[in-house]
Amino acid sequence: MDALWVIGNDRTDTFPERIRNDPRCAVSIVDFNAETGGVEHVGMRGRASVRPFEAERARTLLRRYLGQDETLWDARFRNTLTDSGNVLIAFTPETAVVRDVSYAVVADAELR
Structural domain tally of the chain? Predict the structure, then answer.
C-alpha cells in the first residue's frame, strides 16, 4: 500500500491543520459485529500530508464504497466532489498491527 487516502475539509475538520503542524498520526480500522462478537482491528502509525483536492481521486474512493451510480449517493457525498474547502490527506503507514479480538457472545438466558 502506498497511501491511505482520506477526504478532509479545512472549514469543518481539524485533522488537516493538525497534520500540517505535525505529520505523525495513527489510523485504526475496526470491523465489528455485535451479533457474532467478531472484532478485527488494524492499527497503523505513520505520517500524513495534506494534498490539494482531486475530485476524480475522491470519486474513485467514494465509488468503491457507495457504488458506481452517483445518483444513488446521499447528497452529502455528491456535494463532497465540489466542496471548495476539501483537501486530500495521504497517510503513509510505517508500522501496522492486525489483531482478531473477537469474543464469545453470551445469550441473555446465560446471564441470569
Answer: 1
Which residues share a beta bridge with 30?
A: 41
| Partner residues linked to 24 by β-bridges | 47
CATH number at residue 59: 2.30.110.10
DSSP codes joined into one string, 22-73: --EEEEEEEEEETTTTEEEEEEEEEEEEEEE--HHHHHHHHHHHH-S-GGGS
pTM score, whole prediction: 0.81
Q: Domain for residue 108, yes or no?
A: no
pLDDT tens digits for range 82-106: 999 999 999 999 999 999 999 999 8
